[in-house]
Design goal:
Elements lengths: L2 H19 L3 E5 L4 H13 L7 E6 L9 H8 L4 E4 L11 H11 L13 H22 L3 E5 L8 H4 L4 E3 L9 E5 L7 H10 L25 H10 L1 H14 L9 H5 L14 H13 L3 H7 L3 H6 L11
Parallel strand pairs: 1-2, 1-4, 2-3, 4-6
Antiparallel strand pairs: 5-6
Helix pairs in contact: 2-7, 4-9, 8-9
The chain binds iron/sulfur cluster (SF4).
Length: 320
């Protein structure tokens, strides 16, 4: 950390304590991801913001988020979990997939899926419902001062690095109400985030141990190949819905590739088939066509004959 960062952090911390002493409510947005988990720990156990002034909110993404995320949050917080969802004016559920369909119906000439240039998923499905909750909750408490706390980090992307870690929120602030946005772990590295969670004897959501970089949506439009491949493995029915929607709209989830291409880390090429039984031949024939991921093939067949056929060494490392 640079000297300037240290001074800035100390200044922000002094402002945060000033707000806490004035009775501000700290709304922690919790996605279930590692950054949210570390943010909550830092606020509640590191800074010791009074328990009665912390409120935890989760924007439920419905079927597109990882199963078990809400249970993970509940198991790692001491506060009740407030779950909010996005709805249309007619009261029906707003979801990522129906937003994509709607965008295709109304603007077929524009890419249907969210992107860094049109990140409507975050504003419609997370920011909007959480800000609505903050407005209503503050009113119900008769309070007029709040801090909207989020686990955004500069390291995540160049767009995020340009954000300001502490400032007034102009959408939520009016003459009779003042709300600030604060990203307490803005300068933390990924290692520091995991270390913080470990220091409090907690574990991050299980998908990180499998290698995930991000959480939230199983098939995030910014997801890495590994994350998308794991999503495909654990949520094949949801994967099929994304594939079908790509076909319907004619636009791919990712700017330069389809979700099938993004999730296919390894195209199986079986060079010799001696020793394979009928079922194995069938599997590998399909694997070649569908471009299974290395992991999918590896999980399914690990005996020596198949390892040789796929150029996996004795230790299970892939060389093909
Ligand atoms: S996780 Fe990704 S796809 Fe889902 S709402 Fe956030 S940015 Fe959009």
């Amino acid at each position: 950390m640079t000297k300037l960062q240290e001074i800035t952090d100390r200044k922000i911390e002094a402002q945060i304590w000033d707000l806490a002493n004035q009775g501000a409510i700290f709304y922690v947005s919790h996605s279930g991801g590692k950054d949210s988990q570390a943010t909550y720990l830092y606020l509640s156990s590191g800074l010791h913001i009074p328990t009665s002034q912390i409120v935890v909110v989760h924007a439920d993404l419905g079927e597109v988020e990882w199963t078990g995320v809400k249970d993970h949050i509940r198991n790692t917080i001491l506060h009740p979990l407030n779950v909010v969802s996005a709805i249309y004016k007619d009261g029906s559920e707003k979801t990522l997939l129906n937003l994509v369909e709607k965008r295709f119906d109304t603007r077929p000439e524009a890419p249907s899926w969210p992107s860094s240039a049109a990140r409507y998923c975050t504003s419609d499905l997370k920011r909007g419902p959480i800000e609505k909750f903050i407005r209503n909750d503050l009113k119900a408490r008769g309070k007029t001062l709040a801090v909207n706390v989020c686990g955004i980090r500069a390291e995540e992307s160049s767009a995020r690095a340009k954000k300001v870690p502490f400032q007034q929120n102009d959408r939520l602030s009016i003459a009779s109400r003042t709300v600030y946005d604060w990203y307490p772990i803005f300068d933390w590295s990924t290692d520091e985030v995991f270390q913080c969670i470990a220091d409090y004897d907690e574990k991050p959501f299980w998908a990180y141990a499998e290698g995930n970089d991000r959480l939230s949506c199983v098939f995030c439009v910014f997801g890495s190949k590994g994350d998308i491949a794991r999503g495909r493995k654990y949520r094949p029915e949801l994967f099929a819905k994304y594939v079908a929607l790509e076909e319907k709209t004619g636009y791919s989830v990712f700017a330069k590739e389809s979700i099938i291409a993004r999730s296919s880390q390894f195209t199986v090429t079986v060079t010799h088939r001696e020793g394979l039984d009928t079922e194995q031949v069938q599997f590998f024939t399909e694997a070649e066509v569908r471009a299974f991921t290395r992991e999918e093939v590896k999980w399914q067949y690990t005996d020596r004959v198949i390892c040789e056929a796929l150029d996996i060494d004795e230790a299970g490392d892939w060389t093909a």
